[in-house]
């Protein structure tokens, strides 16, 4: 059975100064349409009136607004960009109400809020905008023109939409949404290649037979970041020097984020290629980050991003992915005799090796990987739902 999945392919784009000006218009117009539509819905709710539908909102904040002197400049950008902004608002409201009813999984979602002009901005062009990729490899966008793209790989199919993103460091990206068939890898011997994954701080991850060292991208750039932030704090607000210093800080953060993302992509790809099944502990990353003095290191590891990326790749390439309950005592359980004689509590975190009552000496992380692997096998064999 062939399963079609939606994927994102992101590439760096280099708009000219005039194209950057047109994109700035599109960013601003999309933000104004969002805020106008949200204000209308909020006013209707406060007055006890029916909330306007997306069709009524489009007529009010687009068709009729363009005919007024206050909003006539909305016609200077592609109408598809403005319609996409309204659809995003509708999706935000739907997600909020689904979360409030308990029909949506994951953390609770708040209601949509008004958008401000921030350092990160984005607009989306759908097929209705008739964007295209020219024969010379440029991205043709309505009312913007042909934008230069740095292609790193070919798109497997025609994109259904493209989102133009400007990040805090002033870089522009084109994010394409494409549909592709799943691509299962050849099956491996599960008894020989399945692995538990014990995530942590001293080692990024401990797998069957190997460890992944902590890259500590933020820690490596921390001194440079402090210097740039100190320079920013000394600049006069509203000055050109402050704008340049703010951009310098953003570039350091962007470098850290790019390195971390590349590291996670490479490691998860290697794990999927080498393992038929992976069993990962369902860590409460936010709780761990807020519970002690390791918050900065926990955020630097990006363990949640690692787990989500690995789960998505396992689903696409036909690998088994299991989340083991976070309350499973993987570090305290002796993998030899099964007794709970391992180090416990906060003090136990400092103990990296320990000896069980049965006389077996364990490395804390390797023992945890072994226990996660066998617990994951039990979950699969018994058909229990993972966490």
Proportion of beta-strand residues: 15-25%
Q: SS-based structural class? A: alpha+beta
- Extended strand count: 14
Q: What's the tally of helices? A: 11
Helix percentage? 40-55%
Strand order, sheet with most strands: 2-6-7-1-5-4-3
How far is the N terminus from the C terminus?
26 Å
Q: What is the chain-wise order of helices and strands?
A: EHHHEEEEEEHEEEHHEHHHEHEEH
Shape, please? Answer: globular
- Average pLDDT over all residues: 90
Biggest β-sheet: count, sense, barrel? 7 strands, antiparallel
Output the radius of gyration.
25 Å
Low-pLDDT runs of 5+ residues are none
Keywords:
387 residues, alpha+beta, seven-stranded antiparallel sheet, five-stranded mixed sheet, 14 strands, globular
Summarize the structure.
By secondary structure, this protein is an alpha+beta fold.
How does this structure look, described?
This protein is α+β, with helices and mostly antiparallel strands. It has helices at 17-46, 54-63, 79-101, 190-193, 217-234, 240-274, 285-290, 295-301, 303-317, 345-348, 364-382; strands spanning 4-14, 121-126, 132-133, 139-141, 145-150, 161-166, 172-181, 195-199, 203-207, 210-213, 277-281, 320-324, 353-355, 361-363. The strands form three sheets. A seven-stranded antiparallel β-sheet has the order 2-6-7-1-5-4-3. A hairpin with a 3-residue loop joins strand 4 (139-141) and strand 5 (145-150). Helix 1 (17-46) crosses helix 2 (54-63), helix 2 runs antiparallel to helix 3 and helix 5 runs antiparallel to helix 6 (240-274). The two termini are 26 Å apart.
């Amino acid at each position: 059975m062939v399963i079609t999945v939606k994927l994102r392919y992101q590439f760096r784009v280099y708009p000219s100064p005039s194209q950057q000006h047109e994109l700035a218009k599109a960013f601003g117009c999309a933000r104004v349409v969002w805020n106008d539509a949200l204000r209308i819905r909020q006013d209707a709710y406060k007055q006890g009136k029916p909330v306007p539908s997306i069709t009524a909102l489009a007529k009010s904040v687009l068709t009729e607004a363009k005919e007024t002197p206050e909003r006539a400049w909305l016609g200077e950008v592609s109408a598809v960009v403005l319609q996409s902004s309204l659809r995003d608002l509708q999706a935000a409201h739907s997600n909020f109400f689904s979360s409030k009813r308990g029909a949506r999984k994951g953390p609770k979602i708040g209601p949509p809020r008004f958008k401000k002009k921030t350092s990160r901005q984005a607009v989306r062009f759908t097929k209705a905008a008739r964007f295209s990729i020219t024969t010379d490899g440029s991205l043709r966008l309505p009312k913007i023109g042909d934008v230069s793209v740095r292609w790193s790989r070919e798109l497997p199919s025609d994109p259904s939409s493209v989102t133009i993103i400007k990040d805090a460091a002033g870089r522009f990206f084109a994010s394409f949404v494409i549909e592709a068939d799943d691509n299962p890898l050849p099956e491996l011997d599960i008894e020989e290649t399945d692995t538990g994954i014990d995530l942590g701080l001293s080692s990024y991850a401990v797998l069957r037979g190997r460890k992944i060292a902590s890259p500590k991208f933020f820690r490596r750039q921390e001194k440079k970041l402090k210097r740039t932030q100190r320079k920013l704090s000394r600049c006069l607000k509203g000055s050109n020097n402050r704008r340049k210093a703010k951009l310098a800080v953003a570039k350091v953060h962007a470098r850290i984020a790019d390195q971390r993302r590349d590291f996670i992509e490479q490691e998860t790809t290697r794990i999927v290629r080498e393992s038929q099944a992976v069993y990962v502990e369902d860590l409460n990353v936010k709780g761990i980050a807020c519970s002690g003095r390791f918050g900065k290191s926990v955020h630097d590891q990006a363990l949640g991003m690692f787990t989500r990326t690995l789960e998505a790749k396992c689903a696409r390439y036909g690998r088994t992915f299991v989340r083991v309950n976070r309350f499973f005592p993987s570090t305290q359980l002796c993998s030899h005799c099964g007794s709970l004689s391992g180090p416990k509590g906060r003090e136990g975190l400092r103990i990296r090796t320990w000896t069980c009552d049965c006389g077996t000496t364990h490395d804390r992380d390797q023992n945890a990987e072994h226990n996660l692997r066998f617990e994951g096998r039990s979950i699969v064999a018994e058909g229990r739902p993972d966490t």
